[in-house]
Amino acid sequence: MGVPIEGEPVQIHSYKHNGHIHRVWEETTVLKGSEKLVIGANDRTLVTESDGRTWITREPAICYFHSQYWFNVIGMIREDGIYYYCNLSSPFVFDGEAVKYIDYDLDIKVYPDMTFNLLDEDEYERHRREMNYPEVIDQILKRNVDKLVQMIRQRSGPFAADFIDIWYERYLTYRR
C-alpha cells in the first residue's frame, strides 16, 4: 500500500461488499498522507454514482480516513456551521490511484450542535442479507458505531473543535 503525496489530487472510490463500485469523487487534495491516516479536502468536486449519474458537491469538505477504524468522516463547511457525514466502512487502502474503501451502508449525520442521528439501518440490514456480510463484519461495524459515537461525544479526532478549521486553512494554501 502506497502513501498519497501531500498537495496532490487523488480520487476517492467507494465500493460495496460485493466488489461493485458505489461512488467516485473525482478530485480530493491530500492534506496529510501516511499509512495510517489520510486527510483530504475538496470543494465542488464531481461525484459519479454507480449508475453513471453525476453531481457536484456544494461546499468545501474535509475528509478523514484512518487505517484502524471502520469508518470515515466528511466534515462539510456550511454557512450555519460544520456538518459531519460519517460512513461505516472498511479501513481505507491507497493503491497509488485512489483512496478506496467498502461502504457498509450505516451512516451517522452530525449537526453543528453535535447532536447526531444513525441513518440507513434498514439499508444495512437488507444489504447484510443480500451480500452475506459475515458475522465478524457485523460485530466490527457495531463496535465502530460505538467508537464513532464516543468520539463525537468527546469531540475527539475529526470532531475536535478546531480540526476542520485547521485543515481547511491548509487546503486554502494549496488553492492559492
From TrEMBL:
Residues 18-155 form the DUF402 domain. Pfam families: DUF402 (PF04167). The keyword Hydrolase applies. It catalyses: a ribonucleoside 5'-diphosphate + H2O = a ribonucleoside 5'-phosphate + phosphate + H(+); a ribonucleoside 5'-triphosphate + H2O = a ribonucleoside 5'-diphosphate + phosphate + H(+). Its cofactor is Mg(2+). Keywords: Hydrolase, Magnesium, Metal-binding. NCBIfam families: PRK13662.1 (NF010183). Its EC number is 3.6.1.15, 3.6.1.6. It comes from Neobacillus paridis. InterPro entries: DUF402, FomD-like_sf, Ntdp-like, SA1684. The lineage of its organism: Bacteria, Bacillati, Bacillota, Bacilli, Bacillales. This is Nucleoside triphosphate/diphosphate phosphatase. Has nucleoside phosphatase activity towards nucleoside triphosphates and nucleoside diphosphates.
